[in-house]
Design goal:
mainly alpha; 356 residues; ABC transporter involved in vitamin B12 uptake, BtuC
Length: 356
């Protein structure tokens, strides 16, 4: 039945068609997500109130959404920066764990003067995330090892390392649970006075502006686009491919590490084993929906934060599991990817190929 079909790439896709295809993909993904929620027992009449009303149109819901969005902005930027070079960073959670561990090490070790400890924690978080992605980077550049495998495996190692510390030297002796001691007041990001939002939100927004400037304004960003489009052509044109790749990939790891630092210093105020789950998938979804553009990534991260806020309501009132929340994100991403395929390729019958 499909033998007579021919797939050809479009080389002159107009901007309006790309925008229309993208919006159609989002609409299709949302329709599938809505159908899933209704199928598992969420009343259709409650969807608008729970998702839009609760997450964005009440003060408490919007504050919770922005709190969720703070680390999501960083991991979305992390995925977007790496994917611009077609480097699949599947270890975002591992770099986030290392960032959280780096920030916690500075806090528990009372490193530096008290007045500068919080900035040191965030710097340590970013450096730890960059260091954790450095090994997959070296393996890819020197030995051709797939970063999909190496970053994924290192994510598991990072979690096991966190377990080792929290069940061992960092365990809170007062409770016996695998959590660290609580951070001092000087080691916590200041609250903004709006729900649980904290200083991490403007820090994440500043990171987005910095990434936008680097990848969309500077020569480094131009080189990065060249490497992402065609690495051999970029090398032949004299682009420093290795240096550009290192800069983008290390920045990706640093952003994931910063996300971990913002979580422990902004919301958790201690190290625990529950802070990193699901961020790799969410980061990739945000990057794709934002079309790898830093400022669009911020908007999508806030929307996904709203999904997380609504999911808390669904869990309490409708018994929705965390797996369903991840599936909802996947459906939206699937809709966008399928729509982008039809925007990038033309499907026709073989005997119409010459005129298609």
């Amino acid at each position: 039945m499909l033998d007579g079909l021919v797939i050809t790439r479009r080389f002159d896709t107009p901007t309006w068609l790309l925008a229309l295809v993208f919006l159609a993909g989002i609409a299709a993904g949302l329709a599938m997500a809505t159908a899933l929620l209704v199928a598992i027992g969420v009343p259709a009449s409650a969807l608008f109130n729970e998702v839009i009303g609760e997450a964005f149109m009440t003060a408490s819901g919007l504050a919770q959404t922005l709190t969720f969005a703070t680390p999501l902005i960083c991991v979305g930027l992390s995925a977007a920066v790496a994917l611009r070079l077609r480097f699949w960073n599947i270890g975002i959670e591992g770099q986030l764990w290392l960032g959280a561990l780096g920030a916690t090490a500075v806090a528990l070790g009372d490193v530096g003067p008290e007045a500068t400890r919080l900035p040191l924690m965030l710097v340590a978080a970013a450096l730890a995330g960059a260091a954790w992605i450095a090994l997959p980077l070296v393996l890819k550049l020197r030995l051709g090892v797939s970063e999909v495998i190496s970053t994924l495996l290192l994510g598991s190692i990072a979690f096991l390392f966190a377990q080792h510390l929290l069940f061992g030297a960092w365990r809170d002796p007062a409770t016996g649970f695998p959590i660290s001691l609580a951070f001092d007041a000087s080691e916590r990001l200041a609250a903004l006075g709006f729900g649980r939002t904290h200083l991490g939100l403007p820090i994440a927004l500043a990171a987005a502006l910095l990434v936008w400037f680097l990848v969309d304004v500077t020569r480094l960003g131009f080189y990065g686009r060249a490497v992402g489009e065609n690495i051999e052509a970029a090398r032949a044109a004299g682009v420093p491919v290795i240096a550009v790749t290192c800069a983008f990939v290390l920045l990706s790891g640093a952003l994931s590490g910063l996300a971990g630092g913002l979580i422990v210093a902004g919301t958790e105020h201690r190290m625990s084993l529950t802070l990193g789950a699901g961020y790799t998938f969410s980061g990739i979804v945000i990057a794709f929906l934002g079309r790898f553009r830093p400022l669009a990534t911020v908007v999508v991260a806030v929307i996904i934060g709203g999904v997380f806020t609504a999911s808390d309501v669904f869990k309490v009132f409708y018994g929705i599991s965390e797996a369903v929340v991840v599936l909802l994100q996947g459906l939206v991403l699937f809709g966008v990817l399928v729509a982008q395929f039809f925007g990038a390729y033309r499907i026709s019958r073989a005997n119409w190929g010459a005129s298609a």
